Please model this.
Amino acid sequence: MSLDVLVVGGIAMFNNPIGTHKADQLVRMLELQPEGYALDAGCGSGEFLVRVVTHHQTNGVGVDLDPRCISAARETAAARAVASRCAFYVGDVNEHIAAPHSFDFGICLGSTYAFGEGDAAYPGRSHG
Model:
């Protein structure tokens, strides 16, 4: 497994376990409609989400626990002229998703921390 990492100002601008080539292949394979919504849980610098939004003319929501990453994500979206179609939030992804079916696409690339641990990762799960 290789990691593609570009570090700018101490923030990994593209850091995921599939690399840029595979990420671009995945973006092209997606069948998203313009004006739909994509979610990137643990979005980091927002690079993958911005690629999705740019390629498909869709809307994006990115969530990450690190405020520096969210700041970098907002800068990335602004630099690519898609900031009006992207929303980035600092915090737990479970606090920022409106409803179970409010996104047309969702991804979590290597961000095992994004949903919490144990029962916190599955708030809607029934016990028993």
Summary: The first strand starts at residue 7 and ends at 8. The chain is about 25% helix and 20% strand.
